[in-house]
């Protein structure tokens, strides 16, 4: 069940806690940003819903950002516009206000997914772009051998792709998103070839799924990974990932055109 957090977060994760060091680990990755920019097409006015600290907002457009969490709004850099305090399900804009709309790594947080997506479609003339994960593919990642509860929680939280496309309507294109080896956006799969990063407390805290298991369980997961890295067991199973240029995991970019 979704609850309203103390800092205004509308989802099931407490961004008053998670957001405190979020921008240190969650920077926009240039390759992913380029895909999002292409999907937005020639839109000049863009709405960013669940905008967080502003990752992936284009700098060459007029962007209006909406974010319910006070902690995340406070972390937006000075060169970005100030975010409006609002939620996806009740966007304070007239019909067809924007050329395009975007939502990155946020729809799994929305208490009413369909209402939020309908609102995005209502206020947007052109493409609606959603950056998300496919729940059935999340648990195919090697981290599932070490932290199964974390990825199970993540899979439960992410809505199926067809539920998103059905709510958006129109013509929907679903694009797989390759993850670069040195991806700057620190979600779990971003460390596919850099497993040591997940030994850092801050890196895990910036991935909300780690906060859905208790402290003892987290400690056991991390101890297992640390042990296998020390003994070489992880490298015996996955060494090729350390130099693999990109990785196709659960990430998808949905582009819905009216």
Overall description:
Residues 1-10 have low confidence and may be disordered. By secondary structure, this protein is an alpha/beta fold. The chain is 33% helix and 17% strand. The chain has helices at residues 15-18, 22-25, 30-40, 70-74, 113-122, 135-138, 148-157, 161-168, 201-205, 215-231, 233-238; strands spanning 45-49, 62-66, 100-104, 128-133, 171-180, 246-257. The protein has a six-stranded mixed β-sheet.
Which blocks of ≥5 consecutive residues have pLDDT under 50? 1-10
Name the CATH homologous superfamily.
Vaccinia Virus protein VP39
The percent range for helix content is 25-40%
* Strand element count: 6
Number of helices: 11
Strand order, biggest sheet? Answer: 2-1-3-4-6-5
Element order, helices and strands? Answer: HHHEEHEHEHHHEHHHE
Give the domain tally. 1
What labels would you give this structure?
6 strands; 6-stranded mixed β-sheet; Rossmann fold; single chain; alpha/beta
Brief synopsis:
The chain has 258 residues and is an alpha/beta fold. Helix content is 33%, strand content 17%.
List the helices and strands and how they pair.
Blueprint: H1 15-18, H2 22-25, H3 30-40, E1 45-49, E2 62-66, H4 70-74, E3 100-104, H5 113-122, E4 128-133, H6 135-138, H7 148-157, H8 161-168, E5 171-180, H9 201-205, H10 215-231, H11 233-238, E6 246-257
Parallel strand pairs: 1-2, 1-3, 3-4
Antiparallel strand pairs: 4-6, 5-6
